[in-house]
Write a structure and sequence with these properties.
By secondary structure, the protein is of the alpha+beta class. It has five helices and four strands; from the N terminus they run αααβαβββα. The chain has a four-stranded mixed beta sheet with strand order 1-4-3-2. Helix 3 packs across helix 4.
């Protein structure tokens, strides 16, 4: 994870939006080589990475896609409570966490697999989005 962490930190420090993903779908050669990945493993990795970037002050906006993945990512980020801050798009609210979480004061977008518009990440990345 060190290389991924370093690259992510460098891109965020340069003001870039970053998407970390396992594969680009079932047609991706990486998927064919590895097969489906475990949501708890991926969620823990993503949550740990997001927490590290937030603690370093490199981001205040975190999106995690995939319902099972999101729940494991929240655990890795130390989140014990969530509240809906705004209804961002249909079925995809922006949430805030409890004040003790490593990602407190971050905007969290948690999107289940088959909900929300296709451009949800582009909308979330826009300056001054809702909440």
């Amino acid at each position: 994870m060190d290389d991924l962490e370093q690259r992510t930190a460098a891109w965020l420090a340069a003001g870039r939006n970053v998407v970390v993903h396992t594969t680009r779908g079932t047609q991706d050669p990486r998927y064919a080589a590895a097969g489906p990945v475990d949501a708890s493993h991926v969620g823990e990795l993503l949550g740990t990475l997001a927490k590290t970037m937030a603690v370093k002050g490199l981001t205040r906006d975190i999106a995690v896609l995939g319902g099972d993945t999101s729940s494991h990512a929240l655990l890795a980020m130390g989140v014990s409570q969530l509240r809906v801050a705004a209804q961002f798009v249909t079925a995809v609210p922006i949430c805030r966490t409890d004040s003790t979480a490593a990602v407190a004061d971050c905007r969290l977008l948690l999107k289940g697999g088959q909900v929300g518009p296709i451009d949800v990440l582009q909308c979330f990345a826009q300056p001054n989005p809702t909440a």
